[in-house]
Design goal:
This protein is of the alpha+beta class. The chain has helices spanning 9-18, 31-36, 68-71, 77-85, 89-94, 97-103, 111-116, 134-137, 208-215, 222-235, 246-265, and strands at residues 2-4, 23-25, 44-47, 57-58, 61-63, 120-125, 128-133, 138-140, 143-144, 151-156, 164-170, 181-187, 193-198, 205-206. The protein binds flavin-adenine dinucleotide (FAD).
Length: 266
């Protein structure tokens, strides 16, 4: 196995130019699980660990190699909350937001946040740069539109972030667990509300009918919250698998969304 450890982005692109199929290794918390299980055996690896350009983080941009350990300190509530729920301290020290996008698991915990705030994904390759909306980038279970030789630069946040954001997830226990259902809810000062759901569809989904309904309500009462919860559940597209059932996921995502919305209303 050939391992390259560039120290800048230009070096990454040079390494990928000579071997576009090389595995890009960020934290390795997804990739190395596959390697250890014998499910992935790359001929070449390009490590991103020493590339500082991918670690930049500002008000409107999160570099792909920013770890959850750093994101836990965000003053964006949902971003800090989701980061705190990922794996263990060791996983959060290594795992990155770019790796979550690269893996594109329907249960990736950063993805509901990215979808709820309508973030874009910035990509670069030898051929040039492109910026895609989150729903152009994520196309299905463990599927995205990255092509060989392309690198995720990072996540571009909207210039104006919603006033309130909240993240919630449920798994079979409280820690070190893949989400059975997750949500990110945002609410702007105007009342405009977004809801993104994880692990209840082929990829992260927005609950558009629930958003439209609750955005029109200035001060949601119990009846409005119940209607909202119901619409979120209906908008989910869950399946039954080894982690949970379709019925439980549908119910859980509605409850999580209601609780997250209530936190946004305080
Ligand atoms: C014990 C354990 C617990 C976990 N718990 C959670 C959890 O609670 N929630 C959760 O969402 N995930 C969890 N995960 C999964 C994993 O930690 C996350 O998906 C994490 O975001 C992966 O980031 P990484 O940097 O380690 O990715 P890597 O393993 O380095 O890469 C993953 C994929 O993304 C690609 N990639 C990485 N960076 C780039 C880039 N800049 N450009 C292009 N492609 C790139 C890689 O080539 C690879 O295909 C867990 C994993 C383990 C082992």
């Amino acid at each position: 196995m050939e391992i390259t450890r560039p120290t800048d982005l230009a070096g990454v692109l040079v390494a990928l130019d000579s071997n576009p199929d090389a595995l890009l290794l960020a934290g390795g918390t997804d990739s190395m699980v596959l390697v250890n299980a014998g499910l992935l055996n790359p001929d070449a690896v390009v490590s991103l660990r020493a590339v500082d350009e991918l670690k930049s983080w500002s008000d409107d941009f999160i570099g792909s190699a920013v770890t959850y350990a750093r994101l836990e300190t965000s003053d964006i509530a949902a971003l800090a909350e989701l980061s705190r729920t990922v794996g263990s301290p060791q996983i959060r020290a290594a795992g990155t937001i770019g790796g979550n996008l690269g893996t594109a698991s329907p249960a990736g915990d950063a993805l509901p946040f990215i979808a709820a705030v309508d973030a874009s994904i910035e990509l670069i390759s030898k051929a040039g740069s492109r910026t895609l909306r989150w729903d152009e980038f994520l196309t299905g279970p463990k599927q995205n539109v990255l092509f060989p030789g392309e690198v995720i630069l990072g996540v571009r946040l909207p210039a104006e972030m919603p006033l309130r954001t909240a993240f919630a997830k449920i798994g079979v226990r409280q820690a070190m667990v893949i989400s059975i259902a997750s949500v990110c809810v945002t609410r702007a000062a105007s009342g405009a509300t977004t809801v993104a759901m994880g692990a209840v569809g082929p990829t992260v989904l927005r609950a558009r009918r629930a958003e439209e309904m609750i955005s029109a309500v200035d001060e949601p009462d119990e009846q409005a919250l119940t209607g909202f919860q119901q619409l979120v559940s209906e908008d989910a597209q869950p399946i039954t698998d080894h982690r949970s059932t379709e019925e439980y996921r549908r119910m859980a995502v509605g409850v999580l969304a209601r609780r997250a919305l209530q936190r946004c209303l305080i």
